[in-house]
From TrEMBL:
Superkingdom of origin: Bacteria
Source organism per UniProt: Spirochaeta isovalerica
Residue span(s) of domain AB hydrolase-1: 54-264
InterPro entries given in the database record: AB_hydrolase_1, AB_hydrolase_fold
Record-given protein name: Pimeloyl-ACP methyl ester carboxylesterase
A Pfam family reported for this protein in Swiss-Prot or TrEMBL: Abhydrolase_6
């Protein structure tokens, strides 16, 4: 069921003004929209058209600004397309579609067709990683590979993480800074990230559902190269447990356990 996600139009405008202000710092990226069955989708593209295509999908409660620290270097070797998930605090249509594999796969397929991409590599963070894996399972002939950074769908979230997230979010700026510090595993958090998170907490209804787990059979029969990356100190998932599951189910899946937390965006070293 689709539903509006911004609390007020004024709040939506504040978030989009912040987004536009940040985009001015990255003039190498071209802006466009693709019409999909799940809503009009905002796309940031960079790199030479003849470069191999790379599609990047952000996580829940975020937008393509999550990749801005990486897009310049990635665009030197790839034609990069960062896509805003409809129903998240970005520049795509501001209604949320259901968190089903069918819905997300249909959306990604519309993007791939709309951009006229031939077997792109797809990278995704958290919810975006789950969506990329789901698309690879349902459309293996349309993907060259997947790099999933701390994706949902491999193991269940840690007990109580959502309650702790709500608790910190209700404590104003101090709580948001504490939450981000945990997500970044104590690494310095850019002030732009703090400012965006404060805006989103005030003006946006976050996604509360958890996407489904992938079955052993689905992961065993995966026909697309998959790289799974997770932090040892991930706030949301037990990365070690996820790696053990994947290694046992399908040794062909490349796994990496980093020293970082959940806020992973550097995929360059894992490019297939």
């Amino acid at each position: 069921m689709s539903r509006a996600v911004f609390k007020t139009e004024e709040g939506k405008d504040q978030i989009l003004r912040f987004y536009d202000g940040m985009l001015k710092k990255y003039p190498i990226a071209n802006q466009s929209h693709i019409d999909t069955e799940q809503g009009r989708t905002f796309v940031l593209s960079a790199g030479e058209p003849e470069n191999p295509p790379l599609v990047l999908i952000h996580g829940s409660g975020s937008n393509s600004l999550a990749w801005m620290g990486e897009i310049e270097k990635l665009s030197q070797t790839h034609r990069v397309h960062c896509i805003d998930i409809p129903g998240e605090p970005g520049k795509s249509e501001s209604v949320r579609f259901d968190s089903t594999r069918e819905a997300f796969s249909l959306w990604i397929d519309d993007i791939v067709k709309g951009l006229k991409l031939k077997k792109p590599l797809i990278g995704g963070l958290s919810l975006g990683g789950w969506a990329a894996i789901a698309y690879a399972i349902s459309h293996p002939d349309k993907v060259s590979g997947v790099i999933a950074l701390a994706p949902t769908g491999i193991v269940k979230p840690k007990t109580g993480f959502l309650i702790r997230t709500i608790f910190y979010s209700m404590r104003g700026e101090k709580g948001i800074r504490k939450l981000l510090s945990i997500m970044f595993d104590g690494e310095p958090v850019p002030e732009e990230v703090v400012e965006f998170q404060l805006l989103a907490t005030r003006h946006f209804h976050f996604r509360m559902d958890t996407p489904s787990l992938f079955t052993d059979r689905e992961l065993q029969n995966l026909k697309v190269p998959l790289t799974y990356v997770c932090g040892k100190e991930d706030y949301v998932f037990d990365g070690s447990k996820a790696v053990r599951r994947l290694n046992k189910i399908n040794p062909a899946i490349r796994t990496a356990l980093t020293d970082k937390g959940h806020a992973l965006t550097d995929i360059r070293e894992f490019l297939l």
